[in-house]
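Tokens in:
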């Protein structure tokens, strides 16, 4: 039974301000905010698959005991009222990042827990490292159809990680015996997330598989827009039903 203090904590989480007992310094090793840097030394064997690559170096064997532990944690998180909106807020705070990752780990287990469809991960620039952000993305459940991201997922050291994320044919985050691959239908880029430099690398990976692509406020200019136009001419945008090019440098004349 959850105490009144826990219920008060639930309201705090839903408002986007995680309570102290949900902060990463109060969570186990597997949930620490620097989790992507772990995987060596003290991390319990059960969680060693949470290393920098997001891959599982050792086969993870499910037992009755571990399944009961996972179910207990899942019921606790459910009691807190966590949903995709709340988790989006938890990801943007270093102190609650570990809890967000733990919750996404439990979603594929089909425990009594909601099925998230949309995640807003914009606002993580300067808060999470690229490795931390893509650790979370690698563990998104297959129910997720739409995400919003910013430059933290696209520019600099994050770009090759985003390319890897888009290219992977199978979802490496799924445990043995589970099925389903994350197939995003919609990606929205926050303002000033990408430009002409990123367009030739990312658009050929994004456009053929998406139904909706939001680029409002991203200065693509002629170079970036030409990449999109070429994909359309090559009939590689057949699935794209909605494309937002507001404030991207698209002019009425000549485009």
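Residues out:
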């Amino acid at each position: 039974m959850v105490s009144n203090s826990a219920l008060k904590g639930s309201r705090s989480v839903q408002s986007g301000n995680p309570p102290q007992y949900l902060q990463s310094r109060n969570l186990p090793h597997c949930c620490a905010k620097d989790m992507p840097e772990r995987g060596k030394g003290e991390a319990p064997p059960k969680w060693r698959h949470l290393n920098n690559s997001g891959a599982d170096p050792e086969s993870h064997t499910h037992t009755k005991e571990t399944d009961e532990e996972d179910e207990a944690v899942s019921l606790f998180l459910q009691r807190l009222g966590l949903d995709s909106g709340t988790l989006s807020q938890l990801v943007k705070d270093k102190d609650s990042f570990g809890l967000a990752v733990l919750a996404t780990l439990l979603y594929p287990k089909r425990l009594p827990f909601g099925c998230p469809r949309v995640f807003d991960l914009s606002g993580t620039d300067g808060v999470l490292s690229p490795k931390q952000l893509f650790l979370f993305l690698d563990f998104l459940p297959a129910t997720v159809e739409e995400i919003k991201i910013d430059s933290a997922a696209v520019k600099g050291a994050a770009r090759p990680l985003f390319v890897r994320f888009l290219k992977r044919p199978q979802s490496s985050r799924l445990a043995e015996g589970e099925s389903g691959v994350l197939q995003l239908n919609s990606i929205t880029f926050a303002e000033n997330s990408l430009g002409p430099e990123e367009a030739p690398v990312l658009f050929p990976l994004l456009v053929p598989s998406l139904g909706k692509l939001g680029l409002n406020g991203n200065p693509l200019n002629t170079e970036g827009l030409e990449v999109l136009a070429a994909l359309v001419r090559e009939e590689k945008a057949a699935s794209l039903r909605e494309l937002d090019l507001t404030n991207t440098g698209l002019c009425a004349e000549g485009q």
